[in-house]
Write a structure and sequence with these properties.
heterodimer; A: 396 residues; alpha/beta; Rossmann fold; 14 strands; B: 289 residues; mainly alpha; ABC transporter involved in vitamin B12 uptake, BtuC; two-stranded antiparallel ribbon; 11 helices; 73% helix; globular; cell membrane (chain B); amino-acid transport (chain B); membrane (chain B)
């Protein structure tokens, strides 16, 4: 079975990763004091390994910068990483172990929404801040806990849905959009978000259709949306089925604008969908390509120096993982600094005291507040499309 | 919408029919089946991708090489996972072929990777408009290949020396052996042919969909349902059941939405088997005492 077979591989990767971490922890000039540890729980093996690698690189670079500038509270910052294999129960075990045995001050990670949702109650019970650099499930930060320790530097489904509705109206003048969503928890979360966002925008819906992740032909569902008069299409799904939607649209000869959640960014969308891939505009929080901010250039150069495996733009995908994790790590360090202590409740309140931070994605002004645990807002999202194998921003 | 549903249903249906024909052939000759048929679908597509895209061979050559690879798989399955158990009078080949399929799936997962890739084909570059529906030429080709394979297999069984040998082995292996027929080689051939049919289905479906290490699993299960539904001893029944299955599946998706597809289709199968326990064109086995 897959898990058995991956065990040996993931162990080697973990060992290699540990060696890597041990390597850069000793690089910083601050060596004498006991390090402040933060724990990473993410998928480092299996299908999401590439995204986990992007997150690890973003964190690694940020920690190197922080330690070069004196660390936090005069102590070096150190990362302890665990592989959750995209499995919620493994994520829970890793989170407990990191808090209780490794004594981490804060957790970062939870690549998949189900893994993040499983870690949320532990972070809240054990009063250790948990910062998500990836998973978009609305309920992760809006978890209903009276004492909420969960923060996020990433997209949020409910806000993505607001953003794609606004983009359809502004860019395409949509008056009656339809939606085609994958039939799982992620599609469900966005169905609620889209219904709410359309209602808020005062737009009628042409209908919301579902498809199974292994469907080959989406023509029947799309035909119903066309007959209902849809003038724009919202798409939620992973890269494979998203490509099948585009192929089905091609066969129907239906040139409707397609605005998508960030599923297409997770693989070789342009190869799978063919030339029509470029017609799909999807949400991102960050791209290196087409980004001429000096900070983006500096970070890209630093990444190339630190990780010689990075040779071209294609090696810094998913860029959102690198950028979200990079900014999240700096924000964690600033929160610990603002708290002046490493106890969980103090660090949590430290997040509310972070005044301003000129990050990679944007300049954060008071990024968190007791009623606002998401650092990124709909107007921070950018829309991008595939051009010659690269994800390129099409507009802000 | 009706044209599109029909074409899509016939296309998928003939794929199920091709894979199910593989179940039929080995069952008819040896009374055993290869439950790794789904993995043979994957192998056909993955090898087609490796030879045609990664190594850049011309597509007909790549397809032939991929099918040869599938034939080798069929031979290996028979030699390693079926013959040793049948020789001891055990039914453990059942689990052995399932296990073999899982092993192959995971080997493909590691070598090919989890990321789906695209197998380009000139037959899916531009859709043609037929009765208001956009259809790729490949979608028209697939049912043709499916039905042609069924007709060819029927003709081989009925009209050639090889067919007579296969039928002789099917009817009475012991008597066939006494008549000088190499039974073991005949059964091995049946397994090879069975895997080739599954590989052809994988090669045909890949340009419409994408090549991935997990593409065949569901195919194998559906094709076995189709084989049972058609009556596993009847080639015509199996292909007919495949086409029916594809049409019902596409029809349900178009009218009730894909959330209802598997529920309705498998309910229909259970109902059909309750009414005709030996399948649409199958005959009850005669137990001589």
């Amino acid at each position: 079975m897959p898990h058995r077979l991956t065990a040996a591989r993931s162990l080697t990767r973990r060992l290699a990763f540990g060696a890597l971490l041990a390597g850069f922890a000793s690089l910083g000039p601050v060596k004498a004091a006991e390090p402040v540890r933060i724990g990473l729980v993410t998928a480092l093996s299996g299908q999401s390994a590439k995204s986990g690698e992007a997150i690890s690189r973003g964190i690694g670079l940020a920690i190197e910068e922080i330690n070069r500038n004196g660390g936090v509270l005069g102590r070096p910052l150190e990362l302890v990483a665990r592989d959750d294999e995209a499995n919620p129960s493994k994520g829970v075990l890793a989170a407990r172990e990191l808090i209780q045995r490794a004594g981490v001050v804060a957790l970062i990670g939870g690549l998949d929404t189900p893994v993040s949702m499983a870690i949320v109650p532990i972070a809240n019970q054990m009063k250790v801040p948990f910062v998500g650099p990836w998973a978009a499930g609305t309920g992760i930060t809006r978890n209903g806990a009276a004492d909420n320790y969960v923060f996020r530097v990433s997209a949020v489904d409910a806000l993505v849905d607001e953003a794609i509705v606004a983009y359809a109206v502004k860019t395409y003048g949509a008056k009656k959009p339809g939606a085609i969503l994958v039939n799982n928890a992620w599609g469900e979360s966005n169905q609620q978000g889209l219904v709410a966002a359309l209602k808020a925008a005062g737009l009628p819906s042409a209908g919301i259709e579902k498809y199974e992740a292994n469907d080959i032909d989406m023509v029947p569902q799309l035909s119903r949306l066309r007959e209902a008069g849809a003038d724009a299409l919202f798409l939620v799904g992973n890269v494979g089925p998203s490509a099948q939607v585009v192929k089905s649209l091609d066969r129907m000869g239906w040139a409707v604008p397609v605005i998508s959640h960030w599923g297409p960014a997770g693989g070789r969308f342009d190869e799978l969908a063919g030339p029509s891939a470029a017609r799909v505009h999807f949400v991102q929080t960050f791209t290196f390509a087409g980004n001429d901010s000096p900070k983006a250039k500096a970070v890209l150069d630093a990444l190339k120096t630190k990780y010689p495996a990075i040779k071209s733009m294609a090696d810094v995908t998913p860029a959102v993982g690198i950028a979200n994790a990079y900014d999240a790590t700096h924000l964690i360090a600033l929160a610990i600094q603002a708290a002046g202590a490493t106890e969980g409740p103090k660090v949590r309140d430290g997040f509310y005291k972070v005044p301003a931070y000129a990050g990679l994605i944007k300049t954060y002004e008071a990024p968190f507040a007791p009623d606002r645990h998401d650092a990124l807002k709909p107007d921070d999202y950018i829309f991008a499309s595939f051009r010659n194998g690269e994800i390129v921003a099409v507009s802000k | 919408m009706l044209t599109g549903t029909l074409v899509s249903g016939l296309g998928l249906g003939s794929m199920y029919g091709l894979v199910a024909l593989g179940f039929h052939i080995t069952f008819a000759v040896s009374g055993t089946v290869n439950f790794a048929q789904g993995s043979a679908v994957t192998l056909g597509a993955v090898l087609g991708y490796a030879f045609g895209v990664q190594l850049g061979w011309p597509m007909p050559l790549a397809a032939a090489a991929a099918l040869a690879g599938c034939a080798l798989l069929g031979l290996a399955v028979e030699r390693l996972l079926v013959r040793p158990f049948v020789a001891r009078g055990s039914d453990a080949w059942l689990l052995a072929t399932v296990a073999g399929g899982i092993i192959l799936d995971n080997v493909l997962l590691f070598t090919f990777g989890k990321e789906p890739r695209s197998l380009p084909s000139p037959l899916v570059s531009a859709p043609v408009q037929i009765l208001g529906a956009g259809i790729y030429p490949l979608q028209l080709l697939i049912p043709v290949v499916g039905i042609a394979a069924a007709v060819a297999i029927r003709a081989v069984f009925r009209g050639t020396e090889l067919g007579r040998v296969l039928l002789a082995v099917a009817q009475n292996a012991e008597a066939a052996r006494l008549m000088g027929i190499d039974v073991a080689r005949t059964v091995a051939c049946a397994f090879a042919l069975s895997a080739v049919l599954a590989g052809a289905a994988g090669l045909l479906i890949a340009p419409l969909f994408s090549v991935s290490a997990e593409m065949g699993a569901l195919f194998g299960i559906k094709a076995f349902a189709v084989a049972i539904l058609g009556g596993i001893g009847s080639a015509t029944g199996v292909v007919l059941a495949g086409l029916l299955y594809g049409l019902v599946e596409a029809g349900v998706t178009a009218t009730l939405g894909s959330g209802a597809t598997q529920i309705v289709v498998f309910s229909v199968i259970i109902l059909a088997l309750a009414l005709r326990p030996n399948g649409l064109l199958g005959r009850a086995a005669v137990n001589k005492v």
